[in-house]
Hints:
Shape: globular
CATH topology: Trefoil (Acidic Fibroblast Growth Factor, subunit A)
CATH architecture: Trefoil
Strand content: 25-35%
GO molecular function, one term: endopeptidase inhibitor activity
Helix content: under 10%
Keywords: Signal
Structural class: mainly beta
Number of domains: 1
Protein name: Proteinase inhibitor I3 Kunitz legume
Pfam families: Kunitz_legume (PF00197)
Organism: Arabidopsis suecica (Swedish thale-cress)
Amino acid sequence: MLISLLLVAITTTSGVVEGNYVVYDGEGDQVKPNVPYYISFMTSDYNMWICRKKWRSNDPNSCPQQPLMVTHPNMAAPTPVMFVLSNKSETVVRESAKLKIKFVDPRPCGESGFWRVVQRTSSEGEVVLNGSESTSDNASTFAIEQTNEYYKFTFGDGPDYLTTISLSNDYPIYRLLSKKFSGEMEIYFYKNLTMG
């Protein structure tokens, strides 16, 4: 009986355990796994989008090694991503669910397109594009959490290891960093590209 009361106390009226809410996109629709989304810094009004460096077939050094947040999308076209869930039976993306982030079209640069955190120091890492879909690859596992009005990406397990994905100070092209005790990159997801 006590267990039943406890379960009722932590379950919302929709039947979803708190902290496991559905993630919504900028159009108010549920975010779905394996569907392309553009990622914007806060709202599309800011005109800052997740991109990859433009690839030029005649320049092997142009291969993108990491996702970027770009202030002026004409420098690099916004690049859609998909969220790949380890629970293949789940039909929506939920807050705190472990997921992989993958660029929709990996480039011919030998990259997998899956995001991965490479630790630079004990408290900071950098997001690169050589991750994997494997559930055992923890360096490629992220989660989406809600902020006050938007969402953020988190990385790591447990409070001692949890970091947020934030932006470097490299205006107008920002690298994505995994940092402890740092600001967070507040983001929103869009199925359709709506640049202002």
